[in-house]
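Feature request, filed as a ticket because there's no other form

It would be nice if the structure record came with a short human-readable summary line next to the C-alpha cells. Right now we just get the raw output. Example of a typical job, pasted below so the devs can see what we mean:
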Amino acid sequence: MVWKLDRLGRSLQELFTLINDFQSKGIGFRSLNDAIDTTTAQGRLVFNLFASLAEFGDLIRERTKAGLAAARARKRIGGRPKGLTAEAQEKARAVKSMYFIKTHTILEIGRLFHLSRATVYRYLAWQEEK
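Raw output as currently delivered:
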C-alpha cells in the first residue's frame, strides 16, 4: 500500500515492472490517492490502462525523435526563424525614426505600417538591442 503512485517508482515503466513482479509473487497493490487496487479486476484494468498510455507516449516520443533525426539528415532545421526578416528590419528602422522624431504616436505609427501596438514596441526594442 502506498499513498500515491509516484512514491513507488520514478517512471511508469519502473512502476509497471514492479507491479508485475508483485503480481507474479501473489502480492496485491493498492494506491490510496490514485484509487488503484490490483487485487480487483477493475483496479488491474485501470493500472493496465495507465501502462498502455505510458507505452503510447513512449511510441510518440520515439517517432518524433526519428522524424527529427530524418529531418536533420536532410539538412532541415525546425523551429521559428531567429530575428527579424529583412523586410521587418526595414520597417523597424522606419518605426524607430518616426518614433524618435516625435511626429507620430505609437498608435499612428502602427496604423501607417499596419502593425499592432505590441509589434511597434517590439520593433523599438529590437532596435535598442542593435
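Something like this underneath would help us a lot:
The chain has five helices and two strands.
The CA atoms of residues 36 and 47 lie 7 Å apart.
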